[in-house]
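Write out the bound-state structure for zinc ion.
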Amino acid sequence: MIYFYVFILCSCVGSFANVLIYRLPKKENFVNGRSYCPNCHHILRMRDMIPIFSWFLLKGKCHWCQHKISIRYPLVEIVSVGIGFLCFMNVGLSVDFFIIFFICELLLVVSVIDFNTMMIPNGLNVSLAILAFISYWFHPEISLIHRLIGMIVISLPMFVMNLIVSHSFGGGDVKLMIAAGFLLGWTKTLVAGLIGIMSASIYALYLLIKKRASRKSHMPFGPFLSLGIMMSLFYGTSMIDIYLQLVNF
Ligand SMILES: [Zn+2]
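---
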């Protein structure tokens, strides 16, 4: 039964994530305003807004104008449910669940918006910073000094890199790593940064080999940093332990 509740909650939050992904880059109000079809602007009915299921019931098309609805909508909702279960299995249904789940959802929104538009809205980084502060309240075991160093351990090298090679990173990426640094503390922030850089390099190599990009083209870094932050949030401590054991031997 509890899994059912987690499913309902997470798919609804995923549905709201879709609203943010669509409206934030257009600077539209995301709190008020009924949901509408982006093509014919018809207000959606209740049954068109059931997370995940509506897309399949509508066969991926608007009920009125038959305009194709992107598969991104159900995908974001399905990924949200996946993230929700991952959080639930890690921390149970506690205050921590809500903090970690909202952080991950925020990172999902950051990833999709950055992927689509090559920019990260400031509001999302500020929201992440607020959640990081709340997390400090519940997790004093990551000390303030640990967190303050975390704020610069990845963001500062990125910022310096930006001065040397302009536009190597976006300002949004730097701010993302400042907020994430306070959330994770410096050791886990290093893990997050490393995973981000490694996964981004693999993706860039893939694009180069497939000739979908040249050496000069830009690619969004936010999705990879977000992946790193999420993985470090869940598995950072174990990864550091394994690494330290390997070094000791
Ligand atoms: Zn329509």
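---
The mean pLDDT is 93.
Residues 118-249 form one domain.
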